Every structure is written in C-alpha cells, then in structure tokens.
Amino acid sequence: MVSADNHNGDGVDEDVEKNVGDRNDKSHRRRKISGDSTQRSPVSTTTQAETQGIRMVAETAPAVAAAGAVSPSHSVDAAVPDRESAFMDMRDPMVSADGHRPNRKEIIRLTLGFTLSAVACAIPWVALSSLILPQLLDQIDPGTREAMIGTINAVGSVVALFANVVFGTLSDLTRSRFGRRSPWIIAGGLLTGLCIFGIGFTTSQTMILLLWCTAQLGYNMMLAPFVATMSDRVPDKVRGTVSGFYGAGIAVGQTLGSLVGSQLIGHIQGGFFMGAAVFAVIGMVTVVVWPRERSSVNMVRKPFSVKMLLLSFQPPKNAPDFYYALFGRTLMMAGYNMVTMYQLYIVKYYVLKDSGFNESDLAAHAATIIATMSIITLVVSLVAALVAGPISDRLGMRKVPISLSSCLFAVGVAMPWILPNALGMYLFAGIAGFGYGVYNAIDQALNVAVLPNPEEAGKDLGILNLANTLCTVLGSMLASGVVLMSGRNYMWIFPTAIVVVLMAAVLIMRIKHVK
C-alpha cells in the first residue's frame, strides 16, 4: 500500500520503478523518496499489465490522501485491477483492446471500413424493409398488409435476437489465421445476399417469411462480429470519432435507402436483386479495406461446449449502466422504427388519404414525398453525425448528447401529428433526421463504454445489439397495434412514438459512470 506521507509524483514513480526498473539501485530510490530531483527512466504502460496495475493503484493515492489518512483500518472500497483483463491494455488510450497501437493509416482504414459497410448495408436493408417489402405485401393481399409486415418483422427479429448473441460468442471463440471476426463477416454477407435473392422469385407469404428470417440470421452473423471489431481494434482515444463516421454512414445509408426504395417501388424484383448483390460482396470488401485482422490461432480460449454457448445468453451481472444503455437504445430505436417501417403506409393512407388518387398514382405520389424526405434527412443527418462524434470526444460526453438527440427526435415526430400533410413529413425528416444523426454518431461509443468486461466484447455487444432486434419487435407490435385498434388510423403512431423515445432519454440519463 502507498502510505499517506508518500503521496506525491515521485512517490508514485518510485513504486512503479520498484516493480519494473532496476531493483538493485536501492540507494537511488531512497534519494527519490526524500525529494531528490534525479530524473526517472521511462516505463512502458502499454505492454506490461503489471506496471499498469501498479500505476492504477498508485494514481488513486492523492485522492485518498485528500479524503483522509489511509491505513489498514481505514481502507477505500476500490476494485483491485485485474491483470488478465483486456482493460489493462487500454490504459494508454491510443492502444486498442487487442494490445495493438494502430498508426494513422490503420485508423483511417478502420474508419473507412466501418463507414463504407454502414452505408452499403443500410441502403438495401432500409429500401427493402421499409418500402419494397411493404409494397410487395400490399400487392399480394391489401387486407393483411399491416398484420403480415408486423409478423415478418417480429418473427425475423426473434431469429436475429438469437443469432446476434450466438454469432457474437462464436466469433469470440473462433481461432483461425484470418482472425476471429473476418470469417463470420464474409459468411454472413453471403448468406444474407442469397436469401434476399430468393425473395425476388416468390409471391408466397410463407416463403417470404422463411427467406426473410434466414436473411436476418445471415445479417446478424455479419453484424455481431462487425460491431465487436470496434471494441477489439479501435483505441478509446478515437472511438468517438470512428463511431461518428460509422453513425454518419448509417444515417447516409438509411436516407439513401429510402431514396433508392422510393425509386424501385415499381420494380420490386429489381430491388431484391440489388439488395442481394450488395450484401453478397460487402463483407469481403469491408475485410479488405480494414487492416488485415491478426491471426487468432494462438489465442488462449476455454474449450468449446454447449454449456458455454448457452451461457452466452447470460447477460452480465451487477452492471446497471449496461442495462440502461440496452433498454434505452431499445426504446429509442422502437420509436424510430414505428415511423420508418410504416412510412409508406403513413404517406399513402394518412398524408394522401383525401387526395383522390387511384392506387398506382397514390404509390407514385408517395414515392415522390418519400424521396424528398430522404434528401432532407440525408443532409441534416450527415452534418449531425460528422459534427457530433468529434465534439463528443472533445467534451468527453456520451449520455447527455444521446439523451438530447432523443428529445429532438421526439419533436420531429410531433410534426406530422400536428401537420398531417407533406409539410409535416418534411419537417419530420429535417428535425428528427438531425436528432437521429447525432444519436447514431455517439451511440456505439456509449455501448462500448458500458461494457463490463472487454474480454467478452463480442458476447456483451451481441446482447446490447439485441436492441436492434427488440426494437423491431416492439416497434412492429406498437405500430400495428395502434393502427388496427384505431380502425387503420395511422395518426396514433406519432404520439405513441413520442412517449417511447422520451422514455429512452430518461433511461440513458440514469447511466452513472459515463458522462
């Protein structure tokens, strides 16, 4: 223990050097303790877990001294550093959790890979799920369109729920010369593309349900290890900025997805073929753009067992911040999905309900409004995402801007409720789009910050990414429920979504250990 009369910088250095420096020069250490100004030798803090552990303990000493005397009978309730934890490698904020210090070029490649993948995946996914698939179901059977889209989203999300956790855990355990994450990212993209390609050849609701659920399986096979890569390979110092570009990619991809989907409403089969092609190649492209993942062949791991796989579904214990982030994200994305998943039906049967257009003209006018909304959202969300990440890094804040962005999103959702016309939808696109851009820019950095154990990043981020699954189930249930109970009145989607996203903001603000 560091005694109270040794609480100064030289005393801390003495304790560190005692463990990692020259153990024979005891007289030199005595001179340093007594106040001698002899310059200390540099000590590594990026590769020696023992050194970092001692330094972590030593750094708490000044605060302890200020609070009162430190003695065996008056101790501080502080956790002892775990020398085996990946957190030890992150004491230097420019060293990633895998112990590697990436150079500037590698950070740029990582940022580019995250951004490119976010854009490329979001475009077809949004185009298909929010516009092309609903239009296909509307053509097959208009009387069951809300129930069918709700069923497909809910069942697909349950599949995604299990897939995300399972493949996150399996990627943690994978040992190959290509690394832990890369093989799953490539395989997941190929499976997703194959299933979406198949949907383009069927009008059977049963086959659509089966293929879409399998596509969800493949998508999460790719997504879980993809997100875990940010925890593995992106240093804490630049994670907010990288997360900002990733969020910008999602925002741009989603708005472009709405734009592309609006143009392909009349070419449904072509839309599914486009999505299949993008997903089939994006996994390979991302892995090539990133610096090559290091071999995991020699990494130590526990023997694989069914019990271990089942334990991967066990959420972390004694981690309240983790759960506030999980349920906060779930509610926020549920509110977002309530509007975006049903935006085609909202525009056709709420905004244009008294227009007098026939079905074909109604779809064309709805496509025009959605395309304009997409352009507005693209501009504001891109600006928001690119600005919010670096500002969050500079201020060292995550939860406050995320909560404020949720509130801003709620203001945007209120616009179509107040103005049930095209102007209301455009205001929604601008205000909610900006709030969502800020949210996406910082959310992933918050998720990594609340991880209880970086060594299980794949598993825990997989559980956090259950928000992407749960929000789809919750959003579908709430939206379809209020529409059907109100006699197909889409107006009630908006107040319900406002309540949901404001609840999300409250939960995020309850996080204690992240600013």
UniProtKB/TrEMBL annotation:
Residues 1-53 are annotated as: Disordered. InterPro entries: MFS, MFS_dom, MFS_trans_sf. Residues 106-513 form the Major facilitator superfamily (MFS) profile domain. CDD domains: MFS (cd06174). Residues 35-51 have a biased composition (Polar residues). The chain crosses the membrane at residues 107-127, 147-170, 182-201, 207-228, 240-260, 272-291, 322-342, 362-388, 400-419, 425-442, 463-484, 490-509. Keywords: Membrane, Transmembrane, Transmembrane helix. The keyword Disulfide bond does not apply. PANTHER family: MAJOR FACILITATOR SUPERFAMILY (MFS) PROFILE DOMAIN-CONTAINING PROTEIN, PTHR23528. This is MFS transporter.
